[in-house]
Structures are given as C-alpha cells and as structure tokens.
Input
Amino acid sequence: MAQDIVIVGVNHRSAPVEIRERLALADGQLDDAHRRLLALGPIKEAVLLCTCNRVEVVAYADDASAALDGIASFLGEGQNIPRDRIEQHLYRYQGRAAVQHLFRVAASLDSMVVGEPQILGQLKEFYARAAALGAVQTVLHRCFHKSFSTAKRIRTETGIASKAVSVSSAAVELARNIFDRLEDKSAMLIGAGEMSELAARHLLSAGVGTLIVTNRTFDRAVELAREFGGTPVPFEHFPRYLHLADVVIGSTAAPQHVLTPALIHEALRERKQRGMFLIDLSVPRSFDPAINDIDNVYLYDIDDLGDISEDNLAERQREAGKAELIVEAEVTGFWEWLTRLDAKPTIVALRERVEDIRRREVEKTVSALKDLTPRQREAIDALTSAIINKILHAPVTHLKRPDADSEMFYIDAARRLFDLGDPENKDEK
Amino acid sequence: MELLLLVLALVLYLAATVGFVTHLLSGRDLIRRLALAALAGAFVVDALAITARSIVSGALAVTSFHDQLSLFACLIVGMYLWMQRRYPLTVLGSLISPLAFLFVLSAYVFYTGNREFPRDMHNLWLPAHIAPAFLGYAIFAVASCVSLIYLLQDQQLKTKRRSDLRRRLPSLETLDELNYRFVTWGFTLFTIGIITGSVLARERWGAFWSWEPVQLCSLITWLLYAVLLHTRLVGWRGRRAATLTIIGFALLIVSFLSVNLLFVGRHSALG
Output
C-alpha cells in the first residue's frame, strides 16, 4: 500500500495567477528541479509539469505520504515562497485519484477551457524532458503513455474539442465589446507562443485588418509575420509602433513587465486616447496589471479570459461527461496493471517467508531424527514443500488476479497476516 | 382632456420603461418590440397633448413649465425613435423611457392649466430661439444617456464582471462615436439658440446680455461643450468625454429647474 503514484500541484482553479507565476519554473530550472525531486528519497520517478495554468509534480514513490509532504515543500522552496502561503492552494492526489487526475489533465478535462488541444502537447514535452533525465521508469512511463492514448481516444470519440470555445474566442468577443468594427483595427503580437498565435489567428479571422509581430528572436518574428501576412518589427523598437496597435497580445517569457503604464500612456497620447485592448497570455504576466487602471485601456490576463470562456462552455459539458466515462474506464485498466505490479513483491515475500519457516522446521526435525536415510530426508523435504505450495496456491492466485476493489486489501492483508513488514511505517519507526 | 392625455402618456412611458428594463435583463425579443411600441404610443399621445394645448393657447405651447417639460420629453423620445432606425440601441430605450416618464410626471405634478399665449410675446425671434434651444437640449439629453451607457460598459469591461449585460450593451467605439455626433449636433443647435436668444433679448429687454441665470448657466454649458468638442480633437475621448457630456447636461437641467422652480430671472415667466 505504501508504494503509490502521487500528484501535488496548483492549477488555475486552486491558485490565482499571482501564486502560479511565482511557482512557475523557468525552462533552465527544470533539469535541476527533477534532480532535486529524485534526491528527496521516497521518490523513485518524477515528472514536472509547468504550463500557464498549472504547476504540478507527478511522482511514483516508495512512501506515498512522505512523498506528498516532500513535494509540497519542494514546490515552495525552489521559488522561495513560504510553505504556508501556498499550502491552501495545493491539491494532493494519491493512488487511483492521482492517475485519474493525470488522465483528466491530458484529456483537457481539467483545463481552463475544457477541450483545448494545447495541453496534450505540453504534457508530452514535459514527459519527454523527464524521461531524457532518467526520471521516468516503468510506472510513470506506462501511466503517461496511457494518459496520451486516453486523450486521443477522447478526442476522436467525443465532440469535446469540436467547438472553438477558447481563450482566443473570448478575446475576440471582448474585442467586439470594445470596438465597433475590427476591419480598420491593427493587432500587435509581442512574443510567440501557441496560445498567443492562436489568439492572433482568431482575431485575424474575425476581421482585424493588420498585424504587427515582434519577438526577441527577430527571425521568429519574420517567420510569424510571413505566416500571418503581418509586419515584423525588431523587439527593441516595438514601443515605437505601439500606438498603431488597437489590440496587443502578449506572450513573453520575460522576467519583468514588457508593457508598463508609462509606455501605454505614451502610446495613448500618440493615438489621441483611442481605446486599446491588451491581452496578456503569459505567466508570469508580461503586462503590468496597473495598466488596467488607465482610462480607455482594457487589460485582460489569462485568468480573466478563462472566466469568460468558462461561461461559454455549457454545451461542452455534455461531451465532457462522455469523456469522463472514458477516463474512468482507462484509469481502471491502468490501475489493474499497476496493482498487479504491486502484488509481485508481496507474493515473493510471502513465498520467501513460508519457505524460510519450512526450511527451519525441516532442519530442526532432521537434526532430531539422527538416523534418517537421505531418501527419507528427501521425502520430508518434498512433503513439506508440497504442503506449503498447496496452502499458498489459493492466496497467491487471489493476489495475482484481484477483483478491483478488494485487491489492495488482499495485499495489505497478506502482508499483515504473514508479518511481511509494512514499508509504509518503516520511516516512522 | 389635455390632462387625460398626459396621464395616458405617463402610463405608456412607464410601460415602455418596464419593458426596456425587462428586455435588458432577459434579452427576449418580444419584450423589446412591445417596449418600442409602448414608447412610440407614448410619443404620439404626448405629441397630441402638446397639440391640444397649443390649439387652446393659439400658439405652440411653451410658456408654462409643464408645457416645456412635456415638449422636452416628446423631443427626446422622438429623437430616440428616429435614431432607432439607424442605430438600433435598445439599451438606450431603458434610459430614455424613464427620463421621459420623469419629465411628463413633473409636467403632471406642476400642471397649471392652459393659458393664452401672451400677446406681447409674438415675435419672429421667439420660435427661432426656442426651437433650436429645445432641440439642442433634447440632443444633449440623448447624448448623456449614450454616455451613461458608455460608462456602464466601460465599468463592465474594467471590472471584468461576469455578466450577460456586457454582451447586450453596444461596443464602446459605437457609443463614443454616437456621443461625438450628438454633441456636435446639440452644440450647433444650442449655439444657434443662444445667438437668436440674445437677439430676442435685445429686442425685448434692450440688451444682448444681462447676466440673467439662464444666460449664465447656458454660457457655462456652452463653454463646457465647446471644451469637450475641442479637446476631442486633441484626444479626450471615451470615459472623459462621456463624463463631461453628463456634467454638461446636469448643468442644463439645474439651470432649467432652478429658473422654473425658484422663479428667478426673466425666462421663467416668459413675459
């Protein structure tokens, strides 16, 4: 019972963006973070996920409760946030619930916008990253691959991703509340990213006339501009063009704010206070939240857009219901596999224990009966072996082929009845 | 007879108000149509009431306070119904209808009966003064309603409240452009009203300008709207423009009410 899959983390529902952006790990910190996780002791395998909407650790551990605690501390420590500040925002899953959570995440059932397709790709990337570091072995390997195939199955068998209800369409909806026509409006894309590109694409197809693209890597800006039919501008000069933009979409990995109130004030002066709509899709946020206090400027971050798109999701709920059933079935399949895996050491321990008793008792008897012929000795050996094999046959069969509910109970019972040791309490004793 | 028409107009304005607000909350199209019909009916009845009073007095009924209030309501609603063809802003109806209701209610409360048009008031400059001034007032009234909706939508977008209201309100750009258009027209008419008014003053009282309360209030309002239109060229639009429009209209109302309720100055009695 002690070995288990655990998940500790925060997502867009459990924690506000202020917390998420502080917990978020930069790309360069990931490798070290995996190493530190594995060094925690109870953790045998670990995968770190870090997207705009979630930071979580999926781990397979020897000692589940120690691992849950260790990961919770780990999340805050690395980013210098006191544990008690994040504690209320953390969720913890163990065992079957953890597997279910992972499968739901992969299937985009736990996403801010249910059914959005990006999460699966992100999940695969983070998994590959952990695997390359050797942080993944049998259990998580199988668990993640099952989650990927489940997500694919849900995508093909349900209509969960068929409607374009997304953060991007929420952005378009808001643009229409601010502007009367989009045809004579320009958008500026600062930084590249899947979400922001999607938002730009949505705005363009909603009619936005022109697009300016800027990126720290100018080549990338040129590439994107070509793709969207926009104009690339060098990143260091983008403030000069800011006043041309009616809509600004931000998605940068910059540690400090790329857009400040001062920049916006200047742009507004040049554009004679004509309204601006700013969309910040990055976490940590790249537009200073104080910008929203400026007259005629409307700043929406990823959470705000999420709130709106959530309202548009009623129709998807039915499809999500079907998806949950698929998840349930797949989780059950995986869980059976995992627990069978878990039964093996128990069966081995059980056999060893009984064999140990048998050998000792046989030796005692043989040494007491001094004048036994080798054949007689062999007969005693064979007899006792046959007896324990016959006795063990039924319990071992049950341990190997459990029915879903009682299976953990059997393993636990076997360990207790035969005093096979309880690894869960090892550390505490 | 005139009073009965006034009551009927009141009932219809109230019905329109209820209808528009219900539509705003529920979004049902049938209610919108009913509200518009009620408002159009109220407009017709109000216009009939004015006509009836005018026939009795022998000239356009504008001399009493209740006449002015009722005419004002009629003009605002007419303006709204007219613009409804080009800009179907149903939301605006939920501000216009209660405003008209309030004016007509005041007209009913302050009803002083019909009186004959004062003989010595007959002057060509009088209609030339009253018509643009009242039309200007009415346009400013509609502009302030548009501005109020602007501020409401602005607040919805700023606070990011999760409501259906934001979806039902027109876009900020539309509201801002409408505000600009109305204020420009209102300002033009208002200016004409002031000019013809001062000519009229010269004819009747011997001076273009006499520091009379209505003149002073009008001048302040005129300056305020002049500033509003001018700064727009520099870039005061959106929130500030909306706020200024409302302040300007509030000033007009204050001058209109104080003159008529406190009976100060020459405008109140009109002779």
